[in-house]
Amino acid sequence: MGYTCATGEEAYTLAMLLDEAIANIDKPIKFKIFATDIDEVALEKATQGLYSQTIVNELSSDRLERYFVQKDDGWQIVRQLREKLLFACHDLTKDVAFTRMNLVSCRNLLIYFQPELQQQVLRNLHYSLVNQGILFLGEAETLGYIKPEFHTLAKKAKIYQKKRDVRLNLPLTMEQRTTQLSPLPAKMTRITRLEPMLDKAFSAFLAKYQATCFLVDRQHKLFHIFNDGIEVLKMPQGKMTTDITKLIIKDLQLPLITALHRAKKERSPTSFLGIEVKQLERLRYLKLEVTYSESSKLADDFFSIVVQEDNPPLKAVGETFQVDATASQRIAELEYEIQQTRENLQAVIEELETTNEEQQATNEELTASNEELQSTNEELHSVNEELYTVNAEYQSKIEELTELNNDINNLLRSTDIGVVFLDRDLNIRKFTPAATVAINLVEADLDRPLAHITHNLDCQDLIPLLQQVIQSQEVVDREVKLVKQDCHLLMRVNPYLLENGSLDGVVISFIDINELKTIQQQIQLVNQDLQQSQLQLRQLNQQLETRVEERTQALQKSEARLRAILETTASIIYLKDLDGRYLLANREYLESLQLTEIEIIGKSDRDLFPPAIADSLIAHDRQVIASQSVLKFEEQTLIDSQVRTYISIKAPLINEQGVYAVCGIATDISEQKLTEVELRESATRERTILEIVAKIRETFELSEIFQNTVQKLRETLKCDRLVLYRFYPDWSGKFVAESVAMGWTPLLDSELATGWKDTCLQKTKGSNCYQYDSFIVNDVAQAKLSDCHRAMYDKIQAKSFCITPIFQGDILWGLLAAYHNQYPRPWKEGEIRLLTQTGIKLGISLAQVDLFKQIQHQSQQLQ
Predict the structure, then answer these.
(1) Sequence-ordered alpha helix ranges (H) in 699-750
(2) Mean of the pLDDT values across residues 559-578?
């Protein structure tokens, strides 16, 4: 659907009406509006779809709520509606541009054009419409000469329907086109009216003096005649020509050719006098003068030729034209060449007569080539449709990225951990709502420097601390406190690293440890109570018998408080002796390990966890005992065959003899870790597909495209082998590109590559891949495969694989396969989607290369 555009109001209005109409009929109809203009500033404004508050008075409240969102001091078209429009710079008077349009609306524009330009634009619009397409004009505009090519659907509204799919007169060439968009000024009108009078006056002047004047261009093509009263022009037989040297009478041809050549070479007028001309048995003398005019801003360079009667010959400035000896010799040479040409022509004619059938076949081939040229426009339409398909794929990709972005935003919003993403200059990229408790952030603060924003932390050196992390690229943990709320947070500053390891900013996370601090303080209070109790027991030993019952009750209350804390907290709390044996474990720890208190008390980490994890936990305990201070660690444990990550705070319990136990409090941060890994992998896959598409656009060399694609995919997927397999017409095939990790034998140029013969794929013509399905096996040993397939995968040492088809149009061209050889591997949805999208891009690239080769082949045939 085509539409002219100013700043987008009419285009968006039409989009709203179409959207409402489709909603009313409740049918899954999709549409696309191409809105064009020659003003790039207006196009930029239209693309944004941002308008002032005054539109509130022009739109109904329903449409305003449905199609607009309030932004800053105005209203903006919603994204769903803006995605249905494509704004482009386009001059109607120069290019046809978009084709196969169902509706073209060009209202109140043609009235500013001259009649000839109006017809040119209308011919272009007729060409742009599909058969039975609709044309919508303004109230003061008419179809003019092409009215018979349209049915009138609404005369008053100026709505017309295209009758037939035919080509009208060809559009004007670039030199003939004009882009005048306003009525001609009065001065230009007077000049236009003056030209016929000057033409008539000049012709009368030439007739009086028995002269005629011709204007020719640099190729000697005649484009204007003034008064051919002396009859020096003669129309030649055969094909029509405008070459003045062939239109002039024979006796003037040689003088004219000589004068044209000399005038251009010497850049001065050239004249010949007394040229004898025999015409109708009468001898007369003519005078010839040729003037060369160089190009200027008003016109290209041209020749003016004046021929005048010279009876009797006058003595004027100029030379008498005589055929001298040089010219005679040249004429003799030309006659000899003509004779030789005639003899050669006779021989060629005889040869052509003997090869008439071959000539006929060649003529038919030329006819077919001509038909192919005539169908080039249809092929270009097909290319346009393919480009529209690519655009639709990009649109789908944008929707996927939008959905992924929404998922990430919801994930960050739902977590209680505050996260702030900063770039290298400490400007804010993104933040979660939970982070606003620590730093006073709003949505408008995105891309602002963090130094310009206040925070609620008792951390005066926040900015220097962040700069330190950027310089050292090391993680920094610090306990901070909210000044106004008296709440404790664990602030962790991590470097933001790209896939290649380069630094691209920092990530600040705020973890609420207020509960941990409360428990820690309560433990310290309990410890102090115990120490005080011991002191009192030593001092009041003699009174022990009388106060045993009282102290017992006090200890029971303390134990009850401690037990209540241990049972209700969501963190893991435990107590170990100096030998690493568990003395205490709260309910959260027991439930996570799926053990009872009897099964864990008295056991050590070596009894509960694998050696590597146990050694790490024991080493941390020894650091706490050696330093006799509270330390924080990031630890991993194995729970339900899964590795879980915890932030662990370990404190030594000290009495008069020294450290007698270690108390630990740990918070599970595994979900946050998984989220960070998934975000990095998703960004890597997106960059990979963009790099592959960029490479496809750079070259038509398939081998380069294939090798670059398999190399990029293998590096991104981190698999051991990635190959590109091509089918032959009999459904056999070969490997055409491969990327293999170090230590594995390549398939290309090996016995396996030339000896591969997959009878199953030949028999089923591509198996499930012909149905656009991917073939995914996470564990070859457990999969139900045929014996021949299993033997083949054993040869290439594949433990798991993911295979996706490549289609060139509707034809299964080949397969894109990723193999993992070291161990079985579960393929993630994002990895499968990356392979599938790459297969689609390769299919489009194959179609583009074939089309380019066809056009190149046709061009060579025509040459």
Answers:
(1) 702-717
(2) 75
Longest dimension (CA), the chain: 165
pLDDT attached to residue 829: 86
Long-range contacts from 647-653, C-beta under 8 angstroms, 24+ separation: 647/490, 647/511, 648/620, 649/513, 649/516, 649/520, 650/620, 650/621, 650/624, 651/520, 651/523, 651/624, 652/624, 652/625, 652/628, 653/527, 653/575
Structure tokens, 411: 């994930």
Give the distance, in angstroms, between the CA of residue 662 and the centroid of all CA atoms in the same chain. 58
Return the bridge partners of 639, or none.
Answer: 642
Residue 857's DSSP bridge partners are: none
Characterize the bridge pairing of strands 222-226 and 211-217. antiparallel
Structure tokens at 206: 């030439």
pLDDT at 336 (0 to 100): 58
Is pLDDT at 511 greater than 80 in this prediction?
A: yes
Residue 59: phi, psi to the nearest 5?
-120, 150
Q: Which residue from 674, 670, 652 is spatially nearest to 662, judged by alpha carbons?
A: 652
Per-residue pLDDT at 185: 43
Tokens of 492: 């962790």
Residues composing the chain: 863
pLDDT tens, residue by residue, 788-830: 778 778 888 889 999 889 888 888 888 899 999 988 989 888 8
What was the pLDDT predicted at 178?
37
Question: What are the CA-CA distances from residue 37 to residues 7, 41, 88, 106, 693 (Å)?
Answer: 9, 10, 7, 11, 30
The two structure tokens encoding residue 76: 């903006």
Q: Which residues of 532-565 are buried (b: 16+ CB within 10 A; e: fewer)?
A: eeeeeeeeeeeeeeeeeeeeeeeeeeeeeebeeb
Place of tokens 């529209």: 388
Mean pLDDT throughout 744-765?
63
Q: Residue 77: count other Cβ atoms within 10 Å of its Cβ.
A: 23
| Residue pair 285/318 in contact by the 8 Å Cβ criterion | no
Q: Given phi > 0 = left and psi -120 to 50 = alpha, else beta, which region is 737? A: beta
Both structure tokens of 51? 């308008």
Q: Contacts by 284-287 with C-beta closer than 8 Å and gap 24+?
A: 284/309, 284/311, 285/309, 285/310, 285/311, 285/312, 285/313, 286/230, 286/232, 286/252, 286/310, 287/314, 287/316, 287/318
What is the rounded CA–CA span in Å between residue 346 and residue 336? Answer: 15
Q: Please tell me the pTM assigned to this model.
A: 0.32
* Across 671-697, average pLDDT: 75
Kindly report the average pLDDT of the chain as a whole number. Answer: 80
Cβ atoms 8, 45 nearer than 8 A: yes
pLDDT at 108 over 60: yes
Asked whether 286 and 310 are in contact (CB, 8 A), the reply is: yes
CA dihedral 622, 628, 629, 630 (to 10 degrees): 50
Average pLDDT over residues 94-100: 71
Number of Cβ within 10 Å of residue 328's Cβ equals 10
Place of tokens 């272009």: 124
Q: Is the pLDDT of residue 11 over 50?
A: yes
Element (H, E) at 501: none
Buried b (16+ CB within 10 A) or exposed e, 377-398: eeeeeeeeeeeeeeeeeeeeee
| Cβ-contact 3, 105 below 8 angstroms | yes
Note if the bond before 610 is cis, omega within 30 degrees: no
DSSP state of 778: S
149-158, 359-368, 583-592, 783-792: segment of lowest average pLDDT: 359-368
Contact criterion met (CB below 8 Å) for 509 and 418? yes
What's the pLDDT at 596? Answer: 84
Query: Collapsing DSSP states into helix, strand and coil, what is residue 372?
Result: helix
What distance lies between CA 682 and its chain's CA centroid?
A: 17
Closest of 123, 154, 120 to residue 137, by C-alpha: 154
